[in-house]
Amino acid sequence: MDDKPKKDSHLEGEGSYSGTREYNQATSEFIRKGKVEKAAKEAKRAVDSVEAAELRVAEEKGKQGDPRKMDKGARRSG
What we know:
The protein is mainly α. It is about 55% helix and about 0% strand. The chain has three helices and no strands. The longest helix is centred in the N-terminal third of the chain and has 16 residues, at about 15-30.
C-alpha cells in the first residue's frame, strides 16, 4: 500500500505548502513596499498608549486557545 499523498491532492493539513508560500509572498511584498518602519512605529504607539492594557488582555485571550471551540472536531484521531 502506498502511504504517500498523491501530487494532485489538495489536502495539505497543518504546515501547508500553499499557506507557507502565500505568507512568504505577502511578507516579502510588505517589506518590499517599505511598510515595516511605519508598522513598527504604529505598534510602539499602541503599546505605549492607554490601548496597551486592551492589547495585553487580547494577547492573553489568544494564548488560551479557541474560546468558542470552533476547531472542535477539526482534528481526527487515527
